[in-house]
Structure formats: structure tokens, C-alpha cells
Write a structure and sequence with these properties.
Strand order of the largest sheet: 3-2-1-4-5-6-9
CATH topology: Rossmann fold
Largest sheet: 7 strands, parallel
Number of helices: 8
Radius of gyration: 17 Å
Order of helices and strands: EHEHEHEHEHEEHEHEH
Number of strands: 9
Shape: globular
CATH architecture: 3-Layer(aba) Sandwich
Structural class: alpha/beta
CATH superfamily: NAD(P)-binding Rossmann-like Domain
Length: about 250
């Protein structure tokens, strides 16, 4: 169990990719602080994990766009488990909108959750890792839209590209403390949200060179590798998990 006695914080984890990452961490021996903005969703997710891995997961509900709350997540990890080894900034918000009429309030909300939420979780986690010694791992959830243009997602794509630059910059700040930092950029992925669209899987199976969209397990497998001891020499990198879509970038709107 490669994460035995490790402690992780994962944001935006009530369902989808974040939940699967928490589940896999717990199944591999980690103790996990599971965050979601929706309290009922967070507690239900933690309870489901604890049914299989007793006591390994604690739900902490709240908005990671709130800097004080983001710092609290790190405090909770230390309070409950004594340390922090892994921090995964997965929480994000997607607000579609035409560039010509995109409202300032939508722009600010996307930046606060996606950028500030990631930046200040990384800051709080890195300070704790620096204090306790022994290094650690940070992982940010980016997106293929940070690599390729996507209609009506100018603000979102901008935020995801910025997250990847943050990871690159933090190599300068964190490497001397044994902390590595990377991003993972999912492409089309089957989640509770995307499965609400009956055409989603068919459309993205047609557009994806590997013949199908990703599953949450595909993303979680890549995430666990990047925060494991096997990836200690990998830092400042972004791993795209999209079945090859970003290499050719066919549009779903054509």
C-alpha cells in the first residue's frame, strides 16, 4: 500500500474525479481530508469511503474560493492525522459564456475558485510540509482547455493555463524542501455531470483518437502516480489525459 501513513487533502471531491482520487488514496493506505462545497455531498462521499476503509476519510465542507477556509483544510489534516503529505487542488468551476458578453461576476468567480483556491491551498500545504520536513507532493487539476481553445470557455481556459504556470513557477520555490508540484489536465471525462448529456459519450468517442472519453478511474490513476514516491523526480509538469484529443483537437461543435 504505497500511501500507508500518508495524509492527503483533496478539494472538490464530493463526486466525479475528486471522489475517485480520494477513494483510491484511501484504498492505498492514505488518510484523507475530503472537501466539497456541498456539505451533504461531502459527508455522503466520506461515509461511502469509510464503509470500506474505516476511519480513513474525513469530510470538511466549504468553499475553496475562501482563502481562510482553504487554510483550514490544512489545519484539519494536521489536527486529525498529525501531518500533511499530499495536497490535491481539484476544486474548480466552469461557467460557460460568450466572450463578447461574459459578465464580470462570472469572471471573478472562476478566478477566485480556480486560481485563488489552487494558489492558497498550495501555499498553506507547502508551509506545513516545510515546517514538518520530509517533503511532499502538490497536484493541481488543469484541463485540456488550458492547452487548446474551446468555444465559450475563454475565462475557464485562461484559469487552467495559469494553474499550469503556477506549478512551473513553484518548482523554484519548493524543490529545495523536497516538495514536487505537477498538474493533471483531463480531457473529456465521463462523470455524473457529463453523463446527464445522452450524446456526450457518443460524441467524444467519435472525437477521441483512442475511441472513448476518459473515465474518472483513468484520471485518478494518473493523479495517484504523480503524488506517489514513484514520481518524486517529476516536477513542474502537466500530464494530459485525453486519449489524444488535444493532438488533433476536433471540435464537438462542427
Amino acid at each position: 500500500m504505497p500511501f500507508t501513513n500518508k495524509v492527503a487533502v483533496v478539494t472538490g471531491a464530493g463526486k466525479g474525479i475528486g471522489y475517485r482520487i480520494c477513494y483510491e488514496l484511501a484504498s492505498n493506505g492514505a488518510n484523507v481530508i475530503l472537501n466539497d462545497v456541498e456539505e451533504a455531498l461531502a459527508h455522503d462521499a466520506a461515509n461511502r469511503i469509510n464503509e470500506e476503509f474505516t476511519g480513513r476519510c474525513i469530510a470538511v465542507a466549504g468553499d475553496t474560493g475562501d482563502v481562510a477556509f482553504t487554510r483550514l483544510l490544512v489545519e484539519k489534516a494536521v489536527q486529525h492525522f498529525g501531518r500533511l503529505d499530499v495536497a490535491i487542488a481539484n476544486a474548480g468551476i466552469t461557467l460557460f459564456g460568450d466572450f463578447f458578453t461574459y459578465p464580470p461576476e462570472s469572471f471573478q468567480r472562476v478566478m477566485q475558485v480556480n486560481l485563488a483556491g489552487t494558489f492558497f491551498l498550495a501555499q498553506a500545504a507547502a508551509n506545513q510540509m516545510k515546517l514538518q520536513g520530509g517533503g511532499g507532493s502538490l497536484l493541481f487539476t488543469s484541463s485540456v482547455t488550458g492547452h487548446q481553445a474551446h468555444k465559450d470557455l475563454a475565462a475557464y481556459g485562461m484559469s487552467k493555463a495559469a494553474i499550469e504556470m503556477l506549478a512551473r513557477n513553484l518548482v523554484i520555490e519548493l524543490s529545495s524542501f523536497g516538495i514536487n508540484v505537477n498538474t493533471i489536465a483531463p480531457g473529456a471525462t465521463l462523470t455524473e455531470r457529463t453523463l446527464d448529456d445522452p450524446e456526450y459519450e457518443k460524441t467524444w468517442s467519435r472525437l477521441t483518437p483512442m475511441g472513448r472519453p476518459a473515465t474518472v478511474q483513468d484520471i485518478a490513476d494518473s493523479a495517484l502516480f504523480l503524488v506517489s514516491e514513484k514520481a518524486r523526480q517529476i516536477t513542474g509538469q502537466s500530464i494530459v489525459v485525453d486519449g489524444g484529443w488535444s493532438c488533433i483537437s476536433p471540435s464537438p461543435y462542427e
